[in-house]
């Protein structure tokens, strides 16, 4: 009984022999990223994030509201 079930499971998960050109996969080679590059990327992201937090923190409430309101309209999201 278990042998029949094992055969059924293996045929269910066996990949199809037909090749669909729209469903093919390509192998890509991943690049190694050095520690220096990771640190630089992290510092750039932290600087940009901190700049946004500080910029919004010191901006007036109406300025932040208007920027968010205009962004919602630009994206096409109704807000009122």
Task: Tell me the radius of gyration.
Answer: 26 Å
Number of strands: 0
Distance between the termini: 64 Å
What integer is the average pLDDT? 77
Task: Point out poorly predicted stretches.
Answer: none
Assembly type of the shown chains?
single chain
Shape summary: flat
Derived from helix and strand composition plus strand pairing, the structural class reads mainly alpha
Strand content: under 5%
Number of helices: 3
Q: Could you describe the largest sheet, including whether it forms a barrel?
A: none
Topology, please?
Blueprint: H1 2-12, H2 35-58, H3 61-75
Structural overview:
- The protein has 80 residues and is mainly α.
- Helices cover 62% and strands 0% of the residues.
- The protein is built from three helices and no strands.
- It has helices spanning 2-12, 35-58, 61-75.
- The mean pLDDT is 77.
């Amino acid at each position: 009984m278990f042998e029949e079930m094992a055969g059924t499971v293996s045929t269910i998960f066996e990949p199809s022999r037909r090749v669909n050109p729209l469903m093919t996969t390509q192998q890509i080679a991943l690049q190694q990223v050095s520690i220096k590059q990771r640190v630089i990327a992290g510092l750039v992201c932290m600087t940009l994030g901190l700049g946004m937090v500080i910029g919004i923190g010191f901006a007036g409430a109406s300025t932040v509201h208007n920027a968010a309101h205009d962004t919602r309209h630009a994206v096409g999201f109704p807000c009122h």
